[in-house]
Specification:
There is one protein chain. By secondary structure, the protein is mostly helical. It is built from eleven helices and no strands. The chain is 76% helix and 0% strand. Helix 3 packs antiparallel against helix 8. The longest helix is centred in the first third of the chain and has 31 residues, at 45-75. The radius of gyration is 18 Å and the shape is globular.
């Protein structure tokens, strides 16, 4: 409860994870709302950018978990918690739940924005697309925890912003990545498959077997790295 209250009082988080993506969405997708095959992707521009900017906003949201962890480390709060009966599992479970709550707010607001520009999908496709996005956030939550335990409060802000910007660019948030060397690079990134969740509207399942494998691999590797960083930080205390 206290974690939720503290997070929901963070106005900067709302700006980064909700306000900024919504402004970008109407700025970019609004003029292209009548484009029904955006850059030969097979998707309307309004739908493509709705999912792309949802990916951008939710990435910011869940990576901000690392910012809170870095702040707690700097204040000595993590050390105090380790002296209490609170288990490590409950600590990280709380972080994950709160990250998902904030991500869901971003998803709802961007979906509402998309509907206002004419996005219309069957209920099953909305549900399947949302499920893929939520699953696709797992590696980013692990990355946020990893960054929170490795970086200081001064360095994590620029690192988080740079990471989100790079993953968004290479993952196809701003424009479809359909071919060439950039496409090969993009397919190896979790951000690419977040954006590909929009393809459920083409009658597919959104992700290929390759996509599921890549997302699972990133999730496992980053979760192990986050666990290592936590243990390392604990030993230093």
């Amino acid at each position: 409860r206290y974690e939720i209250l503290r997070t929901f009082r963070n106005r900067r988080l709302y700006i980064l994870s909700v306000g900024f993506p919504v402004v970008l969405y109407f700025t970019i997708a609004g003029p292209n709302r009548n484009e029904h095959n955006f850059a030969n992707s097979g998707l309307p521009a309004a739908l493509y950018y709705m999912v792309g900017l949802t990916a951008f906003g939710t990435m910011n949201t869940v990576l901000s978990t690392g910012t809170r962890i870095a702040g707690e480390r700097a204040a000595g709060w993590n050390r105090q918690l380790r002296l209490t009966p609170l288990t490590t599992r409950d600590y990280f479970r709380t972080k994950v739940v709160v990250a998902y709550l904030m991500a869901c707010i971003t998803i709802v607001v961007l979906y509402a924005s998309g509907i206002s520009l004419g996005v219309s999908l069957p209920a099953a496709e909305w549900a399947r697309m949302t499920g893929l996005i939520l699953v696709g956030l797992v590696p980013f939550i692990a990355l946020g925890v990893l960054m929170g335990h490795l970086l200081t409060t001064d360095s994590i802000g620029p690192a988080m912003g740079g990471t989100t910007a790079l993953l968004s660019l290479l993952g196809g948030v701003w424009f479809p990545v359909n071919s060439g060397a950039l496409h090969d690079i993009a397919e190896a990134l979790p951000s690419y498959w977040l954006v590909q969740a929009s393809h459920v509207s083409l009658g597919g399942h959104g992700w290929t077997a390759k996509g599921w494998f890549i997302m699972a691999a990133w999730a496992v590797v980053l979760a192990c790295a986050a666990g290592w960083a936590y243990r390392r930080d604990t030993q230093r205390v």
